[in-house]
């Protein structure tokens, strides 16, 4: 049996007739850039995220750039963020000439360690950019208290966290701006690149809408030097077909995670592997199911590959040690928890359509590897 890390075929096949007719609507109306489908999607996303605004853009990476631009992040500014995330979290900061101030992560959730943030705040701190990694929100209550005390806006990188909640509040609704991605591997994936930003602030929304169209509020009159970063009509149409299914897919991911938890616990494997924890009061949407293997991660991965089981490592190199950020002067050992996570974590398949049989194969293989 071959079990890929993510298999979208079943999901897409089931929706194919609806998707084709939605694409046809765009063809018929020439609504290729933004347009009606995107406008309707934006309204539906705002409702889904419990925010006043949702604004489509070209990718999750651009969503973060747009958010930081809207907050006037630029040369001389610092943005507090995590070293343990996808590259775009940090390239958005450096692209604007600002400096990432890295804070280490927690070793159980892999999210920023909020207790270590205050020590990194300086007069130049312009924003705090946490990531809700793998689909679990960072402790936004604790972070919000610090942000309010120092009057620093929070930009939530919620690219992996659509529909995730902390204490009943949705990802993307708790900071100044939320950033989301429609990359096909996210819980709500498009058929190409796409993303959006969320906010409850009227002035920020107006600025974000201008920034995505070259900084113009009125055509050919440019208030800012913005980007060309728009969601296209085809993506809007496809995503509108998919959004009504998102909660069902997320529930299946959660059920798969629960089944893994029970199986790994029953099989006595929780010494050899650390299974994901859920903080109290979160809605974890399991964009990824990530275990830690303190001893033999790479060997386990090879073993699973041999059994036809897809896995991945998120992330093999923490961002403060990336070649392109060498100029920042970080060294191995500076952020030990993130570095340890890079050596130990392994993502297992958790996609919604995964069957119980497939999960049993994965659990058996892990058990076989550890000889139990
Ligand atoms: C996917 C992702 C992004 C970037 O999104 P794209 O749509 O691929 O540009 C940014 N941050 C995190 C945490 C992500 O997982």
3D structure, described in words:
This protein is α/β, with parallel strands linked by helices and 372 residues long. It has two domains: 9-244, Aspartate Aminotransferase, domain 2; 246-370, Aspartate Aminotransferase, domain 1, CATH 3.90.1150.10. The protein is built from eleven helices and 14 strands. Pyridoxal-5'-phosphate (PLP) binds next to α3 and α4. The site of pyridoxal-5'-phosphate has 15 residues, from α3 and α4.
Write the layout of secondary structure elements.
Blueprint: H1 9-29, H2 35-49, E1 53-57, H3 60-70, E2 78-81, H4 88-95, E3 99-102, E4 125-129, H5 140-150, E5 155-157, E6 165-166, E7 169-170, E8 177-181, E9 195-199, H6 202-211, E10 216-218, E11 221-222, H7 233-242, H8 246-266, E12 282-283, E13 289-292, H9 297-306, H10 336-344, E14 345-348, H11 356-369
Parallel strand pairs: 2-3, 2-4, 5-8
Antiparallel strand pairs: 1-9, 6-7, 6-12, 8-9, 10-11, 13-14
Helix pairs in contact: 1-7, 2-7, 3-4, 3-6, 8-11
The protein binds pyridoxal-5'-phosphate.
The site of pyridoxal-5'-phosphate (PLP) has 15 residues, from helix 3 and helix 4.
Keywords:
372 residues; Aspartate Aminotransferase, domain 2; Aspartate Aminotransferase, domain 1; 2 domains; four-stranded mixed beta sheet; 13% strand; binds pyridoxal-5'-phosphate
């Amino acid at each position: 049996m071959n079990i890929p890390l993510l298999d979208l075929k079943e999901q897409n096949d089931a929706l194919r007739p609806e998707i084709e007719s939605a694409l046809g609507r765009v063809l018929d109306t020439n609504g290729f850039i933004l347009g009606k489908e995107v406008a309707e999607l934006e309204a539906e996303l705002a409702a889904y995220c419990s925010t006043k605004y949702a604004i489509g853009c070209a990718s999750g990476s651009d969503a973060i750039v747009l958010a930081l631009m809207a907050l006037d992040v630029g040369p001389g500014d610092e943005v507090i963020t995590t070293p343990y995330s996808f590259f775009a979290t940090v390239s958005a900061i450096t692209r604007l000439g600002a400096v990432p101030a890295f804070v280490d992560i927690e070793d159980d959730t892999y999210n920023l360690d909020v207790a270590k943030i205050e020590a990194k705040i300086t007069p130049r701190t312009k924003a705090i950019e946490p990531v809700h990694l793998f689909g679990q929100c960072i402790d936004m209550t604790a972070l919000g208290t610090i942000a309010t005390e120092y009057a620093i806006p929070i930009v939530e990188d919620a690219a992996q966290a659509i529909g995730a909640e902390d204490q009943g509040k949705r990802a993307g609704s708790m900071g100044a701006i939320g950033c989301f991605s429609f990359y096909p591997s996210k819980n709500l994936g498009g058929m190409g690149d796409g993303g959006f930003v969320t906010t409850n602030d009227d002035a920020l929304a107006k600025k974000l809408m201008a920034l995505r169209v070259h900084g113009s509020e009125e055509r050919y009159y440019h208030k800012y030097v913005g980007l060309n970063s728009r969601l296209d009509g085809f993506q809007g149409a496809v995503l509108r077909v998919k959004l009504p299914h998102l909660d069902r897919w997320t529930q299946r991911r959660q059920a798969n995670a629960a089944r893994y938890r029970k199986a790994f616990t029953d099989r006595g494997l929780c010494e050899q592997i650390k299974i994901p924890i859920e903080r109290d009061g979160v809605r974890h949407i399991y964009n990824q199911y990530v275990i830690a293997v303190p001893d033999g991660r790479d060997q386990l991965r090879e073993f699973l590959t041999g059994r036809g089981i897809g896995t991945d490592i998120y992330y093999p190199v923490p961002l403060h040690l990336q070649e392109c950020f060498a100029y920042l002067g970080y060294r191995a050992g500076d952020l030990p928890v993130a570095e340890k996570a890079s050596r130990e974590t392994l993502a297992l398949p958790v996609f919604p359509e995964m069957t119980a049989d497939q999960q049993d194969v994965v659990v058996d293989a892990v058990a076989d590897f550890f000889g139990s």
